[in-house]
Amino acid sequence: MTKNFGAKPYLFPMPTYMIGTYNEDDTVDVMMMAWGGICAEDMVALNLEAEHKTVANINARKAFTLAVPGTDTLRESDFFGIATANRTADKFGRSGLHAVKSESVDAPVIAEYPITLECEVIEMQTQPYGLRVLGRIVNVVADEKVLDAAGKIDAGKIHAFAFDQMQNGYYAIGEKIGQAWNSGAALMKKQDNGDGKAKNP
Q1: What one-character-per-residue DSSP string does 6-21 give?
Q2: Single pTM value for the model
C-alpha cells in the first residue's frame, strides 16, 4: 500500500547549511538554509527567498560563506533559521558564536563550524520559481579537529546533521557504511547465468 502526498518538497536528507554574510554596518549575519548545494566542481547554488536579509547582503558584498554545522551547535544553528536579521539586529550576537573575516572573500567565517566554503557570487538568477544564487568556491576552511591522520577532512568527525522536511526534525549524520565507487563494484563483474555461460548484469 502507498499513500499520495501531492507535490511536496519531500526529499531526505535535506542539508543544513549556514550562510555567512556581512550586514551594511559590517556586523555578522548567519542564516540556515536547506534548499541548495553543490552544482558543479567549484560551484554552489542557493535557492532563497528574495526578502531575506542574507540576500541583500550577498547582493551588496558579492560574497558569502557556506558552512556545515556540527551537532554541538544545533541550538545556535536552529536559531539562525528562526530569527531574521530584518527584525533582530543582534541576531548573531545572541548566539554567542564567534566570527573572523575570511581571508579569501568579503564574508565571515564562523569559528565554531567545522568546515566552511568561502564563495564569491557569480550570478543572481531571478526566475519564476524563486531566486537562485550561484557562487564559486574560492577556498575551503576546515578545523583541524575534523582532519584524519593524512590531513584530509573526515566526514565522520564533522558530526553534521540533516533536516527532515516531513516532520521538521534534525537527524545526526556520522556512521560510515560503505565506500563510494567500491561498495557496488562487485556487480560490475560478469556473472554465471546458470547454464555455464557468462553474462553481464
Answers
A1: -S----SSBP-EEEEE
A2: 0.91
Percent of the chain with pLDDT over 70: 94
Neighbours of 15 (CB within 10 A): 18
Rounded Cα distance, 128 and 105, in Å = 30
**CB–CB of 158/4 below 8 Å?**
no
Bond into 13 cis (ω within 30): yes
Listed residue (154, 196, 190) closest to 175, CA to CA: 154
Cα dist from 94 to 19, 70, 76, 91, 175, whole Å: 17, 18, 9, 5, 32
User: What's the number of CA atoms in the CB half-sphere (13 Å) around residue 63?
Assistant: 17
What distance lies between CA 34 and its chain's CA centroid?
Answer: 7
Mean pLDDT across 45-56:
95
pLDDT at 89: 83
50 to each of 7, 92, 127, 163, how far by Cα in Å?
22, 20, 11, 22
User: Comparing C-alpha atoms, which of 121, 171, 172, 170 is closest to residue 19?
Assistant: 121
CB atoms within 10 A of CB 45: 17
CB 63 within 8 A of CB 70: no
Assign 156 to helix, strand or coil.
helix
